[in-house]
């Protein structure tokens, strides 16, 4: 069981554009297919990214401010976005406008998807960035080799870390899934007292699910899940988890088989993501690409 209370220190500039800072709150095992990274992302400047995709899943919850996903898609404050592994989005153009640097903040979970390709840890990325910078240079999201070749930075980093070409699974969904939590009903959780939830859905054959929970003041909820890892973030209120004080933006990790006891000193709302284990297929799917954006010559045009 992990309980991590939020502090305003230890923001790291871990995004290749240089305009997004990360506050790392929870992370998994880099040797496991179900590795993950849970962060707060903070926009510190105008943000630009070409159309791109990842080989991992993402779930995003803007806490303050909106996020421009490109092509008319906006992930608004309070909405939840599910970005399937291999699904392209962008190009993104997100100037700060009237917002102050650091004002826009969102919860971001990045995690290994159902394809079983895994997820690279931030420590592995940082080391690869440092080592690759000795033989080339990173310019935004691209890596420039000394021989003039330009490639998508994540491809170069992945090959450097794992010694193999990154595989991009073909997306199970055509577009980002944008969820409107306000339009879901609060429903009582069977067998509990003082607990309601909004179940927003489960995704891919892995069945990763998203919920909001609302625990009334002076209520106690004890729960466990024998199969899935559960990640909670407190969005309002305060109380205790596993005997420790929790309040705004406290993160809680309950691994399979662990029993979590939550008690609310005042009405408390939490954001929950459930992560069942990954069942890898007996025969690997051939639905993948070895190029980040097949047919997009813009990746090398700037060389």
Mind explaining what this structure looks like?
With 303 residues, the chain is mostly beta strands. The chain has a domain at 10-175: Jelly Rolls, CATH 2.60.120. 8% of the residues lie in helices and 42% in strands. It is built from three helices and 26 strands. The strands form seven sheets. Strands 1-23-20-25-18-17-16 form a seven-stranded antiparallel sheet, with no helix packed on it. Strands 2-3-10-5-8-15 form a six-stranded antiparallel sheet, with no helix packed on it. Helix 1 crosses helix 2. It is globular and about 65 Å long. It starts with a strand and ends with a helix. 32% of the residues are buried. Mean pLDDT is 93; it is low at 297-303.
Please provide a brief summary of the model:
The chain has 303 residues and is mainly beta.
CATH superfamily of the domain at 10-175: Jelly Rolls
Low-pLDDT segments, ≥5 res = 297-303
Largest sheet: 7 strands, antiparallel
Order of SSEs? EEEEEEEEEEHEEEHEEEEEEEEEEEEEH
Computed over alpha carbons, the radius of gyration is 20 Å
Summed up, the helix count is 3
- How would you state the average pLDDT, rounded? 93
Shape: globular
- Record the strand order, biggest sheet: 1-23-20-25-18-17-16
| Helix-and-strand structural type | mainly beta
CATH fold-type name of the domain at 10-175? Jelly Rolls
Strand content is 35-45%
* Percent of residues in helices: under 10%
Instruction: Give the N-terminus to C-terminus distance in angstroms.
Output: 48 Å
CATH architecture of the domain at 10-175: Sandwich
């Amino acid at each position: 069981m992990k309980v991590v209370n939020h502090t305003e220190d230890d923001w790291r500039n871990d995004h290749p554009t240089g305009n997004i800072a990360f506050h790392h709150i929870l992370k998994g095992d880099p040797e496991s297919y179900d590795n993950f990274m849970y962060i707060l992302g903070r926009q510190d400047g105008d943000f630009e990214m070409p159309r791109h995709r990842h080989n991992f899943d993402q779930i995003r919850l803007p806490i303050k401010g909106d996020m421009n996903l490109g092509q008319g898609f906006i992930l608004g404050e309070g909405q939840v976005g599910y970005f399937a592994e291999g699904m392209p989005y962008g190009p993104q153009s997100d100037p700060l406008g009237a917002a102050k640097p650091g004002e826009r903040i969102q919860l971001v979970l990045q995690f290994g998807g159902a394809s079983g390709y895994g997820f690279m840890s931030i420590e592995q990325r940082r080391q690869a960035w440092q080592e690759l910078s000795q033989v080339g240079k990173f310019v935004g999201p691209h890596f420039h080799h000394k021989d003039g070749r330009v490639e998508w930075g994540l491809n170069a980093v992945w090959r450097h870390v794992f010694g193999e070409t990154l595989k991009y699974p073909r997306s199970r969904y055509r577009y980002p899934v944008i969820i409107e939590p306000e339009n879901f009903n609060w429903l009582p959780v069977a067998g509990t007292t003082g607990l309601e939830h909004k179940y927003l859905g489960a995704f891919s054959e892995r069945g990763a699910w998203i919920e909001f929970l609302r625990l009334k003041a002076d209520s106690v909820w004890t729960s466990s899940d024998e199969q899935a890892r559960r990640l909670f973030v407190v969005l309002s209120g305060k109380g205790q988890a596993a005997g420790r004080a929790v309040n705004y933006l406290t993160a809680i990790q309950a691994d399979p088989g662990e029993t979590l006891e939550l008690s609310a000193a005042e009405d408390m709302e939490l954001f929950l993501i459930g992560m069942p284990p990954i069942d890898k297929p007996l025969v690997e799917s051939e639905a993948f690409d070895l190029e980040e954006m097949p047919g997009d010559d813009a990746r090398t045009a700037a060389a």
